[in-house]
Write a structure and sequence with these properties.
Layout lengths: L87 H10 L24 H35 L11 H21 L5 H9 L4 H10 L32 H4 L3 H10 L63 E5 L9 E7 L4 E7 L15
Antiparallel strand pairs: 1-2, 2-3
Helix pairs in contact: 2-3, 3-4
The chain binds a DNA duplex (16 and 16 nucleotides) through helix 2.
Length: about 375
DNA sequence: TAGGCCATCTGGTCCT
DNA sequence: AGGACCAGATGGCCTA
């Protein structure tokens, strides 16, 4: 629901292997044989489940089989080699259990020929099962780690709510936009344009996520919606701009009405939304968005314009306060006496506490306290 | 009920 | 050889 087709050029691709069988081409499955581990295909064994035509184990690691035809497009169990085959008694055991090739498949077509199948011994079957279970556990653990990292990411992107979590894909998109927006701010070397910042933040996000971010940022989503082409549209009134965010004029060192009046009076457009914050800065949105607003410049490459030979430092205080409220604001804080804009600070504000993010730009000859703060 | 999102299982490939 | 990584497949849950 949250996810809309994003601007990834093409999400479809050629699979590396033959795993993507058209579902229609598969035989009808039992109600739920899906993930069972089938290590035998002996149809005579009573009381056992039907082999899963999809996920049954197919171990064909015998290098001698290279170049042979695939034994079966569906992963039927076919264990044809075992590194431990040197054991004579086991070999005899296998010889007994070796089954003749089934001459016909279920459709009456002759089966492909290949190495004669042999059934698993109990011990080997157990080993296969154990290895599979271990691999499953590792995979679960790996995915949990991935999800943990994603959760960490959720907490540092501008909109975080425990009650309404961003989906994975939206989290990544928002994070990318966030990085982009911050990078633009840094590369511009001037105080950020709030509206533009939020617009960049919401580029390509789904409507629900845009609304969520808007809610978090106390903005009206419609004021920075983008159209189908990724262009920002302003559907009419701008009257609500001045209550989009509680503009911290004091924090910015400008009169409260100063920047806001620019917001209201100026018809903002994505390419001309340069608020004057005192009028001392040149327009800096000469390029646009993470989503290819600069045709021919990035050539489809989506990467933030981070330069300056600088680094980010993200100071995230009191994370436990985070998420206590679903209502956050964003404000920017100038540092008195830092007219050079070597440092820009940004807050996420909740009623309970203020989270202070400081962006420190280290450029030639500049040293900032970020370096002295523990990471 | 359809669609989105997610967790999980699974097997192929790559890497150490 | 074994683990990591990846992507396909599937079912469950939730929401509009």
């Amino acid at each position: 629901m949250l996810t809309l087709p994003y601007e990834e050029p093409d999400m479809t691709y050629e699979p590396r292997f033959g795993a993507n069988y058209p579902r229609g081409s598969l035989p009808d499955l039992e109600p739920n044989p899906i993930h069972s581990l089938n290590v035998t295909s002996d149809p005579e064994r009573e009381g056992e489940e039907e082999p899963d035509p999809i996920h049954s184990l197919d171990i064909t690691s015998n290098p001698e089989r290279e170049g042979e035809e695939e034994p079966d497009p569906i992963h039927s169990l076919d264990i044809t080699s075992d590194p431990e085959e040197g054991d004579i008694s086991e070999r005899e055991d296998e010889e007994e259990e070796r089954e003749d090739d089934i001459q016909q498949d279920e459709n009456g077509h002759p089966r492909k020929r290949g190495p004669r199948r042999k059934k698993l011994t109990k011990g080997r079957q157990e080993r296969v099962t154990v290895r599979r279970h271990e691999a499953n556990a590792r995979e679960r653990s790996r995915m949990h780690g991935l999800n943990d990292a994603l959760e960490s990411l959720r907490k540092v992107v501008p909109c975080y709510s425990k009650t309404q979590k961003l989906s994975k894909i939206e989290t990544l998109r928002l994070a990318k936009n966030y990085i982009w927006a911050l990078s633009e701010t840094l590369s511009a070397g001037k105080k950020p344009d709030l509206l533009g910042f939020v617009q960049t933040l919401c580029k390509g996000l789904s409507q629900p996520t845009t609304n969520l971010v808007a809610g978090c940022l106390q903005l009206k989503a419609r004021s920075f919606l983008t159209d189908h082409n990724g262009e920002v549209t302003y559907p009419g009134s701008t009257a609500h701009y001045d209550n989009m965010y509680p503009y911290p004029g004091a924090d910015l060192g400008t009169a409260p009405g100063q920047a806001c009046s620019t917001l209201v009076s100026g018809k903002p457009s994505y390419h001309s939304r340069h608020y004057s914050y005192g009028g001392q800065y040149e327009p800096y949105y000469d390029h646009t968005s993470p989503e290819g607003g600069r045709e021919g410049h990035l050539g489809g490459q989506i990467s933030p314009p981070l330069n300056f030979n600088g680094i980010f430092s993200l100071k995230h205080d009191e994370p436990e306060e985070y998420g206590k409220s679903g209502h956050y604001g964003m404000r920017y804080n100038s540092v008195p006496g830092h007219g050079s804009l070597s440092s820009a600070s940004m807050y996420r504000v909740s009623p309970e506490g203020r989270l202070h993010y400081e962006l420190h730009l280290r450029s030639a000859g500049q040293t900032h306290k970020a370096e002295t703060q523990s990471q």
